[in-house]
Amino acid sequence: MVLSVSSTFIPPANTQLTPSEQKLEPQPLTDANQDTLANASPAVIYHPNEDTSTTVKQLEVVDTWIGRSQSPEFPRFAQIAAAAHGALKASFQAFQATLSNSAPDLASKKYGFTVEADGNLKVLDTAAQLSRSDTQRLTDLLNKSLGLKAAAVSYRDASIDLVDADSPWSGSYMGYYSLTKENFASTIDLAPLLKDTRTMVPAEFKDATFFTQLSNKGERATRETEHVMLERRTAQRFSVMV
User: Fold this and answer.
1) Which terminus of the chain, N or C, has less C-beta within 10 A?
2) pTM of whole model > 0.85?
């Protein structure tokens, strides 16, 4: 058969194959090859799974809480919180100056303080430098300083407003936490927020900002806590984008 693939194709002169006179003789396996063949094992053994089923499983519905988006009121609440922080810092510095004159033994010790749910100030013995008597004296002096007490309560309320206005997944992410009057005292120590960071040792930096304290000690928000918060804010005519 001649197959022409182009106009210039030249067919071979001889298209017939010459049969060979050589006969093919089967060769017996050597002893080594016979042993190899006898000991050979399959490369893959398939074990069918009796549990295998072609039935399509029903989809499992997972209900996930995402949370609110950041409120358009957030920038305004951020300004209010910043102003409340400045006022509290000035009041605390004035209190410390007075304390240095009236009770220098207390002024020289490290302590923290916060606001309880009822609005009273609570002393925190964060550095383990206060005796029971020291704690009581400081508590009395802090609560008798009406300017400091009012400034601390204002900052607490502004901080709660700020967290409520934020989102758990956007903005500043403070909405990931639930901050209330009831858990503020177990979450925020006001003293580190009012001190000069240049005077702090490295271990104190974890409490140097509001967000670090919130993230380290704050209560995680849930669908339930957000629902309660939104009801409370609705009663207060708080604007929230859901």
Assistant:
1) N
2) no
